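User: I'm writing a tutorial on reading structure tokens. Could you give me a worked example: one chain, its sequence, then its tokens, then a sentence or two explaining what the tokens reveal?
Assistant: Sure. Here is the example chain.
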Amino acid sequence: MHIGYYIHSHGKGHLQRAQQIAKHIKSDVTFLGSNLSNSDVANNFNIVDLPADKVEYVPDVAINENCETLSFHYAPYGAKTYQQRMLKIAQWVEKTQPTLVVVDVSAEITQYFRLLGVPVISMLQHGDRNDSAHLCGYDAAYKLLAPYPEILESDSVPLWKKQKTIYVPGFSRYSGRILSKPEARKKLGINEQQKVVLVLKGRGGDSHCLESISETAKTTPEWQWFIVGPIQINYNKLPKNIACEGWQQDTFPYLKAADVVIASVGHNTTMEIAEAQIPFLCIPEKRPFNEQKVKAELLEKMGLCLYSSSFPTSYSVKSTLELLINMDITKWKNIVSSDGAEKAGMAIESEALKIQNYLLNKTSCRVC
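And here are its predicted structure tokens:
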């Protein structure tokens, strides 16, 4: 039995999630995506490196000005790399005969595998995704997989979509990791009595710009502010209670050491905050289909965060921090579990086994 795993090339989150899940799949797994040979994943999994699908590879012609259809979000004409991607996928399917493919994420790729006769488990994301192209992808999928519990599902999701969805607990790269607050503070050299704000800055977006953070921090000298992530630093303007830590591969000690965290609400970031069980002020970045805005609204409704459209000002920060430190952080236990990735991997393998049995026994019932 062989399982394929298609990985969207935007950002590192899809690849990170794939690795966490795939290590719990006992069957042979092949990752399909762009630039995989340049990552450490090539050392641990079979890979099929696909040609890039970036916009600059698409001919700049009039018929490509609006190439979205009801079925596809993006279907450019005359794009050689797109043709090469699809051909390489078809060749891999013909050679490998996969039992099942996980797609994280693409409405177009999901439909393409379906046309090749391969059952697909399509990964779900939050956001306003009831447009025709998304629904066509969900309809073409054999099953859907939500890397979050059903209580974090949006009310706008159609019933038929929920009925074909496998929900698993949330998980992150820090799942199951144990680190106490005193241990984290000792590791980072932070006094146990010090009040600490952690600002997590990702590689995209500007909601947490240094100017905003500096102006806000000046009005809270009793709080120590740590900024983790890529940010342009001007030491001449920084107040003394700000420490710019730069990009950190391991953010868990900072999360465990802080009293509150301010961050955007990307999926992996949210699950890492949930694992650390820390009060969360989320400031959504602009993303397609309002992905982060929808997630922020759901989290706030459940009492898991405070949602703000902008960074707190010097006038609002003290009241905001007071609200945050009084939040019930135990609610995060309803979102994540140390075995979330394992449950996802087991669910994928279980569905693949069902499909294999259907095909081997030549069962007459439809499986797709």
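What the tokens reveal: The mean pLDDT is 91. Residues 255 and 276 are 6 Å apart (CA to CA).
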